[in-house]
Hints:
The complex is a heterodimer of chains A (431) and B (383). Chain A has 431 residues and is mainly α. Chain A has helices at 2-12, 18-21, 24-56, 72-82, 93-109, 128-136, 139-150, 153-184, 196-206, 217-232, 244-247, 257-282, 297-324, 332-351, 355-384, 390-429.
Amino acid sequence: MHAFIEYIQSYLNSDLTPGGAGNIFWATVYILLVFVGLSIAVIAMNWLERKILAHMQVRLGPMRVGPHGLLQPIADAIKLLLKEDIIPAEADAAIFWIAPFMVVLAAFTVFVVVPFGPTHAITDMNIGILFMLGVSSLSVLGIVMAGWASNSHYPLIGALRSSAQMVSYEVAMGLAVLSVILMTSLNPESTGTLSMIGIVQAQFAQGEWFIFKFFPLGLIGFVIFAIAMVAETNRAPFDLPEAESELTAGFHTEYSGFRWSLFFLAEYSAMIAVSSIAVTLWLGGWLHPFPNLLNSPTWELIFSLFPGISFVLLALMCFYNTARMPKHPLFRVQTLGLAGFGVVLGLIGLILFIPAVRVRVTDIFWFATKVAAFMYLYIWYRGTFPRYRFDQLMKVGWKILLPMGLALLILTAVVGMRTELWAELQGALHP
Amino acid sequence: MTDPNTLSPLDLETPDKTFLDANELVINMGPQHPATHGVLRVILRLDGEKVMGLECVIGYLHRGVEKIAEHRTYTMFNPYVDRMDYVAAVSNGLGYCEAVEKLLSVEAPPRAQYIRVVLTELNRIASHQLWLGTHALDIGAITPLFYTFRDREEILKIFEKYCGARLTTHAFRIGGLQYESYEGFENDVRRFVNFVKPKIDEYEELLTTNRIWLERTKGVGKISGKDAIALGVTGPVLRASGVKWDIRKALPYANYKNFDFEIPTGQNGDTYDRYLVRMVEMRQSLRIIEQAVEAIPEGPIMAKVPKVMKPPVGEIYHSIEAPKGELGYFIVSDGSTQPYRIRVRPPSFVNLQALDVMCRGQLVADVIAVIGTLDIVLGEVDR
Lengths: 431, 383
C-alpha cells in the first residue's frame, strides 16, 4: 500500500506527462478526466449551439426543460437512450452495429495526445500530430461502413460524399500542418518536432504564435487549416454528407436512438479535436496571450486569476437572470434551479482562486478558451452560410486549398531557410 | 404517364450516356422528403450525382377543386380557391372574383379595387418571403427562414385584423369586399412598409453577395426565354429568363394601370436571376402598396350584385399575375347558379413542367435548388 502511495506521489514532482513518466495510475486518472471533460463539453456544446443559433435566428431556443433549457441536453440523452433500437431488416447487421463505435473510437482516441498544458496530456508522443491526423481520419471508415451497411440509397450517397470529402481535405490539412512543423525547426536549440507539446514549446521559444510567424504565411496556413477542419468534421457549410434538404440525414439516415447519439457524440468530439489541433499549432496551445512580453510574476498572477474570474462572471450572469425570472409560483423550481446553478458556478470560481488549484488550472483554461472560440465559429458558420454543392466542395479542396497549401509549404521553407542562413551569416560576420 | 412505378422514357431528348455505361441509379425523392415543398414525388435517374433525367409524380394532394366547383354556387366556391395556393390565398381570391365579375359584367367599386390591390400586393410579399426562406433553407442557409417568417407575420397580422383569417383569407367577395377596412388599416400598412424595407436589405445582406450562395445559384437550373415560353412558364421564372411579361402591365386587371411600378427582368434565366427578380419584385410591390394606400378613395365597397347569381350563358377566361405566375380561371356558365365547368390554370403546375429541362445534366443538389426556385405549392399543382 505504502509503495502504491509512493508510486502515486512520485509523479507529482515530475514535469512530464503521465504517459511520458510511465505512471499508469495518473494516466488512468487523466484518461477518465479527459473522457468526463469531453462528455461534459459535448453536452454543453449541444446546449450552447442550440441557444446561440437560436439567438442568431431571432428565436429563444430551448426554454422549457430547466431554466433557460439548461437540462435540455440531458432530456435529449434520456430520450435517445429510451428509443427503440432499430436495425433495418435489409441492413448488414454486424457492420451496422460496429460503424458508430468505429466513429466514436476514432473521435475519442485522438485526445490521447492533446496537450491541455505542459504536463496536462495523457501522453506526449514524438509523432503526436501525425497520430492525431491519422486516427481522426479513421472515422471516415466508420462513416463508409454506416452508409454501406444501411443498404439504402441516401445513406450510401451520404457516405460516398463524406469519404470523398474527408480524404480530399486531409491533403490540404496535412500541407498546412507541415508548414507549422517547418516553423518549429527554426528553434535555436531544436531540430523541429512533431510532438504536440513540443510545437507549443517551440512557439514559446520563438516568442510568437505561429499564426503570426512570417506574416502572412502563418496566417494563410491557419486559414487553410480552419477551412479544411470544417470540411473534415462535416459541418456547415460543408455538411454535405448530412445535407438534410437533399439526403434527409445522410449516412445516418437509418440510425436511431443510442446508435445515432454515438454519431452525434463523435461529431462534436471530432470538432473539439480538430479545434484543439488548430489551437496547438497556430494559437499557442495553453500559452496565455503575449507569453513573452507579459511573463513577469505579476502578469502570471493576473493571467492565473482569469479562470476564477470568468466562472464568477458566469455565476453573476446566472444570478442576474434569476432576478429576471418571472415572479410566478410556476417558475419557482426553475428560478431556484438557476440560482443553484449560479451557486455551483460561483463555488467553482472560488475554488479556482486557491493558489494550488490556480497554478494547475490556468493552462487548461487558456486552452479551453481558445477551443471554445472555435466552437463559437462553428456555430456562427452554421447560422450564416448556405451549403456548398459537392463539386464545388471538391473544387475548393483540390483547386484552391491544395495549391495554396503547396505554395505555402515551399514559401515557408524558403523564408525559414533564409532566416536561418541570415542568422548564421550574422554569426560568421560578428563572432 | 401510365404507370408511375416504372420510368417511362422521357421524350424531350435522348439523355446523355452514363459514364462508362454504368448502371443508372434510380432514386425516388419524395413524396415524403424535406425539400420537395409538400408532397411532390420526383423520380431521379442518376449517374453518380449527375441527373440524367427526372420525372415528377403529382397528385398526392389532389382534392378535386375543379369538380367541387360544379356542385357549388359561384359564391360558395369562393373559399375553395384559397386552398389551392395557400400561401397566396388573396391572389387566388382576386382572380376568381374578377373572373366571375367579368362574367356577370359588373365591376367592383374603386374603393374595393384599391383595397384589393393593397391586400394582393401584401400577399405577394408574403409569398415571396416564404419562398425566400424555404429556398434558402433548401440550399443550406437556415437563418433567412426565421427572418422572413418574422416579417411575414406582420402581413398575416394585417390580414387577421382585416378579415379574421391569416392564411386562407377569403378576403374578397364577388363584386367587391365583404368587410370595410378596419380602423387604422392604412396606418398599419404604412407602418409595415416602413418596417419591411430595411428587412429586405437584411435578407439581401445575408445572401446576395454571399460567395457560396452565388456558387450555388449562378448557372444553376438555366432555362432560356424561348424554352420558357414554349413550356408555358410564367411569373418570375419567365421574367428571369429575360422575357418582360407581367399581366399587371400586359393585360392590366383590377386598377393596376393607375400605379407606377417596374417589371424586373433577368438575363441568364438561372436560379440567381430568379432570386434577384423576386427580391426586386418585393420592393416594387411595396411601391405599389405605398401608392395605393395613399389613394384609397371613399365610397361603397360592393357593387350591385344579385343575391342569386345567374351569369349569362357563356365562357370567360380571366388571368391575373399571382406571385408565382399567371393564374387563370376559365369559367363556363350554362346560365344556372352553378358553374358548368371551372378550369384553373395554376402557375405552379405549369412551371413544374420546366423542372426536367432545368435539371438535366445538373447535380442532385441542384434539383433541390431548382424545386425551390420554381416556387411551387403542391396544393396548387394538384388542386
